[in-house]
Amino acid sequence: MPLCQLELQALGQVHPEIERLGARLIALSPQARGKSSSLGRGCETPFPVLRDPGCKIASLYRIAFTIPRQFRAAYLKLGYPNSTKKKSWLLSIPATYVLDSSGFVVLSCIDADHTARLEPTAIIAALTHLRAANIPDRNNR
User: What is the CATH number of the domain that holds 109?
Assistant: First the structure.
Protein backbone atom coordinates (compact mmCIF):
# COMPACT_ATOMS: atom_id res chain seq x y z
CA MET A 1 0.00 0.00 0.00
CA PRO A 2 1.47 3.43 -0.92
CA LEU A 3 2.68 5.60 1.94
CA CYS A 4 0.31 8.43 1.01
CA GLN A 5 -2.64 6.09 1.36
CA LEU A 6 -1.38 4.79 4.71
CA GLU A 7 -0.91 8.33 5.95
CA LEU A 8 -4.41 9.39 4.90
CA GLN A 9 -5.87 6.32 6.62
CA ALA A 10 -3.93 7.11 9.81
CA LEU A 11 -5.12 10.72 9.68
CA GLY A 12 -8.67 9.51 9.11
CA GLN A 13 -8.44 7.47 12.31
CA VAL A 14 -7.42 10.50 14.41
CA HIS A 15 -9.72 12.92 12.58
CA PRO A 16 -12.41 12.82 15.32
CA GLU A 17 -9.78 13.82 17.90
CA ILE A 18 -8.48 16.59 15.63
CA GLU A 19 -12.00 17.98 15.33
CA ARG A 20 -12.62 17.59 19.07
CA LEU A 21 -9.56 19.78 19.63
CA GLY A 22 -11.15 22.45 17.43
CA ALA A 23 -8.95 21.98 14.37
CA ARG A 24 -9.63 21.29 10.72
CA LEU A 25 -7.72 18.79 8.61
CA ILE A 26 -7.19 19.34 4.88
CA ALA A 27 -5.01 17.22 2.58
CA LEU A 28 -3.47 18.20 -0.73
CA SER A 29 -2.81 15.57 -3.39
CA PRO A 30 -0.88 16.03 -6.63
CA GLN A 31 -3.13 13.47 -8.30
CA ALA A 32 -6.16 14.42 -10.36
CA ARG A 33 -9.51 13.23 -9.05
CA GLY A 34 -10.14 9.63 -10.04
CA LYS A 35 -6.51 9.01 -10.98
CA SER A 36 -4.93 9.07 -7.55
CA SER A 37 -2.66 6.12 -7.04
CA SER A 38 -1.75 7.66 -3.69
CA LEU A 39 -5.31 7.33 -2.41
CA GLY A 40 -6.21 4.01 -3.94
CA ARG A 41 -9.67 2.65 -4.51
CA GLY A 42 -12.05 2.83 -1.61
CA CYS A 43 -9.85 5.17 0.43
CA GLU A 44 -12.45 7.70 1.47
CA THR A 45 -11.40 10.33 3.97
CA PRO A 46 -13.60 12.14 6.51
CA PHE A 47 -11.78 15.36 5.57
CA PRO A 48 -11.35 17.19 2.26
CA VAL A 49 -8.57 16.17 -0.11
CA LEU A 50 -7.80 19.06 -2.43
CA ARG A 51 -6.30 18.24 -5.83
CA ASP A 52 -3.12 19.83 -7.13
CA PRO A 53 -2.35 18.25 -10.51
CA GLY A 54 0.86 19.69 -11.86
CA CYS A 55 1.94 20.63 -8.30
CA LYS A 56 1.01 24.30 -8.78
CA ILE A 57 0.09 24.87 -5.14
CA ALA A 58 3.00 22.75 -3.88
CA SER A 59 5.34 24.87 -6.02
CA LEU A 60 3.98 28.06 -4.46
CA TYR A 61 4.83 26.67 -1.03
CA ARG A 62 8.20 25.44 -2.30
CA ILE A 63 7.43 21.81 -1.53
CA ALA A 64 7.84 20.56 -5.09
CA PHE A 65 10.89 19.75 -7.13
CA THR A 66 11.68 18.84 -10.70
CA ILE A 67 12.86 15.27 -11.13
CA PRO A 68 16.31 15.44 -12.78
CA ARG A 69 16.41 13.95 -16.28
CA GLN A 70 18.84 11.18 -15.30
CA PHE A 71 16.40 9.85 -12.64
CA ARG A 72 13.14 10.00 -14.61
CA ALA A 73 13.25 6.42 -15.93
CA ALA A 74 13.86 5.13 -12.41
CA TYR A 75 10.95 7.16 -11.04
CA LEU A 76 8.67 5.76 -13.73
CA LYS A 77 9.72 2.19 -12.88
CA LEU A 78 8.96 2.88 -9.23
CA GLY A 79 5.49 4.04 -10.21
CA TYR A 80 5.85 7.66 -9.16
CA PRO A 81 3.29 10.02 -10.64
CA ASN A 82 4.34 12.38 -13.36
CA SER A 83 2.82 14.69 -15.90
CA THR A 84 4.73 13.73 -19.01
CA LYS A 85 1.87 14.89 -21.24
CA LYS A 86 2.51 18.42 -20.03
CA LYS A 87 6.29 17.93 -20.08
CA SER A 88 6.27 18.58 -16.33
CA TRP A 89 8.33 16.40 -14.03
CA LEU A 90 7.30 18.11 -10.80
CA LEU A 91 6.88 15.97 -7.73
CA SER A 92 5.61 17.25 -4.41
CA ILE A 93 7.44 16.67 -1.15
CA PRO A 94 5.23 15.32 1.65
CA ALA A 95 4.64 18.12 4.14
CA THR A 96 2.46 18.57 7.21
CA TYR A 97 1.69 21.88 8.88
CA VAL A 98 -0.15 22.68 12.11
CA LEU A 99 -1.29 26.29 12.28
CA ASP A 100 -2.69 28.21 15.20
CA SER A 101 -5.90 30.23 14.90
CA SER A 102 -3.97 33.26 13.58
CA GLY A 103 -2.36 31.20 10.79
CA PHE A 104 1.09 30.97 12.42
CA VAL A 105 2.84 27.65 11.75
CA VAL A 106 3.50 26.01 15.11
CA LEU A 107 4.61 22.62 13.81
CA SER A 108 5.85 21.48 10.42
CA CYS A 109 7.33 18.36 8.92
CA ILE A 110 8.91 18.57 5.49
CA ASP A 111 11.34 15.90 4.40
CA ALA A 112 12.60 15.04 0.92
CA ASP A 113 12.62 11.41 2.11
CA HIS A 114 9.07 10.46 1.17
CA THR A 115 9.06 7.77 3.87
CA ALA A 116 9.53 10.31 6.68
CA ARG A 117 6.07 11.48 7.76
CA LEU A 118 4.78 13.27 10.84
CA GLU A 119 3.06 10.83 13.16
CA PRO A 120 -0.59 11.65 13.82
CA THR A 121 0.17 11.54 17.57
CA ALA A 122 2.53 14.52 17.09
CA ILE A 123 -0.31 16.46 15.45
CA ILE A 124 -2.63 15.61 18.35
CA ALA A 125 0.05 16.66 20.87
CA ALA A 126 0.55 20.02 19.12
CA LEU A 127 -3.20 20.65 18.97
CA THR A 128 -3.60 19.67 22.62
CA HIS A 129 -0.85 22.13 23.56
CA LEU A 130 -2.45 24.90 21.47
CA ARG A 131 -5.83 24.30 23.04
CA ALA A 132 -4.37 24.34 26.55
CA ALA A 133 -2.51 27.57 25.76
CA ASN A 134 -5.68 29.26 24.46
CA ILE A 135 -8.00 28.34 27.34
CA PRO A 136 -7.91 31.05 30.03
CA ASP A 137 -7.00 29.89 33.51
CA ARG A 138 -10.31 29.74 35.40
CA ASN A 139 -8.54 30.68 38.66
CA ASN A 140 -7.50 34.06 37.22
CA ARG A 141 -11.01 35.25 36.25
Answer: 3.40.30.10
